[in-house]
């Protein structure tokens, strides 16, 4: 695959999409500035063992991403938007490269190139590669783990490959906790199960039974749901001796390596955490890592959450999966090697989808590691379609409908985006109207983008209806790529950024406050911490806030309009007068700067 010019062309394109103007927009609340502040405090305080946020212990995330940002800051001279995003950007490039290499090894160069084109034109892949999140680095590590599993299952069948697998699992845990190991293990477990199922009588029926059981497990969620889900798979594997690949001393040695790597950071960190605050070690080890799976602290969602969000992540290609996966469970429809390869990718997708469906905490970002496998399956189907394979040609009616509808949607966006933005500018809501006004300032480039999108959408629509698959795939990919470029290089930095960034509000607030003490009532917004470059004391008790503001000197505090409304409605400040000195929308919140003196009195 590396000798194919298409490989290097797609890698160069991906690098351009992820790295160009990487720091051209501000860090957006809550995640981006939070992680940047944690990394900055780590570097400034010299404590690379225990993470802190606003001077307080930060037990939510492991340290590896912060270490990477901190080390980069040593070379760049500080932590800014570019430095904070660079680990994600590099990871995104590597994910696309590894996906092409694996697809090329499994199915050939054209499938590898199609895989790269699908991922490089995906907004979720490029967008998250330009965002301060752990999910893209985690996806990169999981990709490497799946490559090791593939090599062990298909090529060398060397049990010593458990050593790099568990070493990579330790790296995954240092990026984002237990999911770094548990998810690939769960997907590998699914592969071993499916490998036995396809050789049983009526494999399709067995697959349906396992799917129904997995669905029942997601209804319960948590550990109980997990047990319900895996119980029949365990029975199948025990009955068919399917667990033989792990019955080796190398598996145990790999586990030891994993424990040693993780413990090198975890043990001294837990000791330090317990000395700083009693009970903190338990919160980090138990509550933060395993408690989230059974009972969500945030992002709680119903069992069917991914049924709707997952298909949207790699639209329209993900809708090809039924036709790409159905032949797996039909005997004589695929060659032995082809079936095993598709089965491996199918287990990869299903394992991740089911695992996170069993968790009570759900976000669309969590299932990003499944997208490379989705892209490979879709690319393989289209490769066979372009080659005129009988198994692919039997479903052309459905594929025509999917691509035609999607191209129709792109055409509708091309026609309707500018009028929609015009009406936004007439909205009664200030934040919405401001967005429309910002869009109007960039009407010309938006109009050009819409015209190009409309053109390629019409080409794709006509090509889909006529069955001109090369033209259809090229036009659809071009339309998606145009949307990615317009979003990342025009809409996000020029239109959305002024609405979501805390930079301006922070600068104006600190200009008002000067050298006076500033506190935050409620939970401090991380964007203010990052752009203010100062720690801000948090006050959560209204009585404490009232006492602070009663001081004869000029005092300031920051909060949201929602919290301020509650304070005033219930007279929780006990008659202490406060005056709004600044108000600004930052994302979905309206942030306020308040003082115990009005502006005129302060000037005097």
How would you sum up this structure, described in words?
The structure is a single chain. With 604 residues, the chain is mainly α. It is 69% helix and 5% strand. The protein has three domains: 390 residues, no CATH class; 100 residues, no CATH class; 101 residues. The protein contains 27 helices and seven strands. The radius of gyration is 27 Å and the shape is globular.
Please tally the β strands and state the result: 7
Domains, number: 3
The residue-averaged pLDDT reads 91
Computed Rg: 27 Å
- Share of helix, binned: 55-70%
Low-pLDDT sequence parts:
none
Task: Give a short synopsis of this structure.
The protein has 604 residues and is mostly helical. 69% of the residues lie in helices and 5% in strands.
Task: List strands and helices in order, with pairings.
Layout: H1 5-19, H2 31-45, E1 52-53, E2 56-57, H3 64-76, H4 81-107, H5 109-120, H6 123-129, H7 135-155, H8 162-176, H9 179-197, H10 203-220, H11 222-239, H12 249-276, H13 280-294, H14 305-313, H15 321-325, H16 336-358, H17 371-386, H18 390-393, H19 396-424, H20 430-440, H21 443-466, H22 469-500, H23 503-513, E3 518-521, H24 526-532, E4 537-539, H25 542-549, E5 556-560, H26 561-569, E6 579-586, E7 589-595, H27 599-603
Parallel strand pairs: 3-4, 3-5
Antiparallel strand pairs: 1-2, 5-7, 6-7
Helix pairs in contact: 1-4, 1-5, 2-3, 2-24, 3-4, 4-5, 4-6, 4-7, 4-17, 5-17, 7-8, 7-9, 8-9, 8-12, 9-11, 9-16, 10-11, 12-13, 16-17, 19-20, 19-21, 20-22, 21-22, 23-24
């Amino acid at each position: 695959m590396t000798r194919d010019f298409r490989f290097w062309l797609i890698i160069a394109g991906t690098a351009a999409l992820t790295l160009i103007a990487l720091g051209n927009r501000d860090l957006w609340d809550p995640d981006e500035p939070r992680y940047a502040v944690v990394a900055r405090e780590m570097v400034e305080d010299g404590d690379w063992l225990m993470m802190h946020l606003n001077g307080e212990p930060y037990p939510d995330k492991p340290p590896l991403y912060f270490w990477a940002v901190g080390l980069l800051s040593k070379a760049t001279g500080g932590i800014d938007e570019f430095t904070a995003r660079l680990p994600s950007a590099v990871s995104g490039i590597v994910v696309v490269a590894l996906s092409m290499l694996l697809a090329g090894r499994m199915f050939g160069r054209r499938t590898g190139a199609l895989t790269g084109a699908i991922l490089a034109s995906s907004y979720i892949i490029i967008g998250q590669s330009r965002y301060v999140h752990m999910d893209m680095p985690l996806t990169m590590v999981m990709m490497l783990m799946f490559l090791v599993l593939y090599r062990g299952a298909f090529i060398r069948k060397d049990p010593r490959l458990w050593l790099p697998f568990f070493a990579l699992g330790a790296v995954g845990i240092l990026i984002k906790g237990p999911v770094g190991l548990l998810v690939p293990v769960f997907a590998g477990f699914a592969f071993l199960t499916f490998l036995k199922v396809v050789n049983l009588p009526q494999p399709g029926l067995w697959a349906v039974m396992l799917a129904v059981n997995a669905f029942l497990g997601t209804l319960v969620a948590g550990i109980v749901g997990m047990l319900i889900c895996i119980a029949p798979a365990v029975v199948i594997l025990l009955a068919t001796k399917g667990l033989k690949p792990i019955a080796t001393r190398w598996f145990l040695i790999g586990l030891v390596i994993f424990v040693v790597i993780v413990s090198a950071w975890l043990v001294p960190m837990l000791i330090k955490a317990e000395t700083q605050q009693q009970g903190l070690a338990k919160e980090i080890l138990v509550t933060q890592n395993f408690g989230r799976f059974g009972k969500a602290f945030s992002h709680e969602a119903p069992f069917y959450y991914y049924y709707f969000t997952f298909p949207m992540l790699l639209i329209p290609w993900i809708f090809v999966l039924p036709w790409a996966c159905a032949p797996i469970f039909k005997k004589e429809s695929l060659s032995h090697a082809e079936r095993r390869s598709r089965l491996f990718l199918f287990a990869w997708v299903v394992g991740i989808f089911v695992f996170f469906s069993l968790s009570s905490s759900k976000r669309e970002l969590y299932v990003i590691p499944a997208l490379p496998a989705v892209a490979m399956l879709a690319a393989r189907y289209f490769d066979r379609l372009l080659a005129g394979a009988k198994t692919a040609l039997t479903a052309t009616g459905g594929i025509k409908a999917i691509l035609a509808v999607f191209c129709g949607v792109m055409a509708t966006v091309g026609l309707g985006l500018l009028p929609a933005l015009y009406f936004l500018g007439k909205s009664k809501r200030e934040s919405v109207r401001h967005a429309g006004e910002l869009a109007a300032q960039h009407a010309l480039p938006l109009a050009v983008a819409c015209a190009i999108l409309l053109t390629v959408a019409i080409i794709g629509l006509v090509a889909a209806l006529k069955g001109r698959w090369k033209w259809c795939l090229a036009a659809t990919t071009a339309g998606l790529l145009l949307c990615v470029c317009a979003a990342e290089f025009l809409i996000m930095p020029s239109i959305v950024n002024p609405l979501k960034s805390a930079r301006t509000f922070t600068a104006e607030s600190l200009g008002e406050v000067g050298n006076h003490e500033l506190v935050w009532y409620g939970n401090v917004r991380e964007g203010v911490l990052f752009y203010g470059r100062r720690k801000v004391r948090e006050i959560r008790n209204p009585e404490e806030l009232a006492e602070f503001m009663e001081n004869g000197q000029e005092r300031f505090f920051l909060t949201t309009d929602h919290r301020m409304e509650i304070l005033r409605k219930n007279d929780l400040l006990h008659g202490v007068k406060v005056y709004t000195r600044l108000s600004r929308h930052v994302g979905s919140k309206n942030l306020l700067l308040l003082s115990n003196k009005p502006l005129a009195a302060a000037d005097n």
